[in-house]
Amino acid sequence: MSNPFSFRLIATDGAARTGEIMTAHGLVRTPAFMPVGTQAAIKGVHQDDVRASGTDIVLGNTYHLMLRPSAERIAALGGLHAFMRWPYPILTDSGGYQVMSLSALRKVTEESVTFRSHIDGTMVALSPERAIEVQNLLGSDIAMQLDELVGLPAERGEIERAMLLSLRWAERCKRAFDGGAEGRALFGIVQGGDDQGLREKSARTLVDIGFDGYAIGGLAVGEPQEVMLQIVGDTAPMLPADRPRYLMGVGTPSDILEAIGQGIDMFDCVLPTRNGRHGLAFTRFGPINIKNAHHAEDARPLDAESRCPAAHEFSRAYLHHLFRAGEALGGTLLSIVNLYYYQDLVAGARAAIAAGHFADYVAQTKEQWAAKRDIA
Questions:
Q1: Which of 244, 269, 294 is the last residue of a domain?
Q2: Catalytic residues, which ones?
Q3: Which one of 20, 132, 288, 312 is at 20 to 30 Å from 121 when CA atoms are compared?
Q4: Among 204, 210, 226, 228, which residue's Cα sits nearest to residue 218?
Q5: Which residues pair with 143 in a beta bridge?
Q6: What pLDDT was estimated at residue 1?
């Protein structure tokens, strides 16, 4: 089979870009937002609702799926697409984020990272080669290199150590991936914390190694938004214009719009579903905390003009009641509302870039947020 993975740039508007990623499981329109399906599920949301929101691609997690139910079991059951009934593109994270988030349960060496399973306490090793093997077994369309990121703020020496280790792991991932994953793609991950010199060294080395796409990792881990955006703005131009650029773990609607303006093509974040489960809805008029008491008798929908059925068919009073009553449906409905909002946000960006009006789109979107119209 010839490699179906490709990236086509359709239009630019300043640094902002819109394009298409072709994979074996279909097309991804960029800028793209990827809902996070860590354990082969977008938490609390049915796959059909995820697709209906406008989602082209979802994200799964190597570390979690390796532990449960295991990559080998998923492969025996037909691969991740069949297992979770998502016949569209999937990107799998490498487990690198867990190197940071589960720091109390792991040990990092040159060879690998060894975790004490958060499920049953058994020791599990994840090397660059094993990370690629697991992702090959899962059958994701886009695999990520194994990397180590550090939370910020951090000492420069610690940031540099992790960045250099990630580069050595990138080379090992590339060797393990080449020849064994025909039809799929591998992305390298730029590290370097909040040090632009280290970011530049990381980016240049990864480009020399050669990947199908490039991610900017290790951000949204404690640094101020302005620092994150400065790093993104300085790093993105170092990455090849003919390859997708992915900002990992970001973020808020504002973060996404700003990063699109700096040339980023792909995003993932748990915020739409996590906030939905906790009663926060993203709307054109800013966030709405549906648990607030003043919604108890409000017969209006969240947004009468939204294309999301949950946003225009249910009253705020009903959604408020679901959360007060502890009904899981409340979290599911707001998660769906938020997925639609995020997908509409990036769809609007794609259209605005193609029309050459991206700056106007950002300004109008922010004006609506600031006005907080229709929020009682």
A1: 269
A2: 93, 268
A3: 132
A4: 228
A5: 92, 186
A6: 44
Q: For 281-306, what is the mean pLDDT?
A: 96
Residues 6+ apart with CB under 8 A from 138: 60, 62, 65, 71, 74, 75, 79, 80, 90, 92
In contact, 204 and 178? CB cutoff 8 Å:
no
Judge whether residue 202 has pLDDT over 90.
yes
With respect to residue 10, please indicate whether it lies within any of the assigned structural domains.
no
pLDDT at 359 over 50: yes
Averaged pLDDT, 74-97: 94
61 within domain boundaries: yes
Q: Are residues 259 and 295 in the same domain?
A: no
Is 28 within a domain?
Answer: no
Q: Which domain holds residue 311?
A: 276-371
Query: Do 128 and 169 fall into the same domain?
Result: yes
pTM exceeding 0.85: yes
Token couple for 186: 């591998």
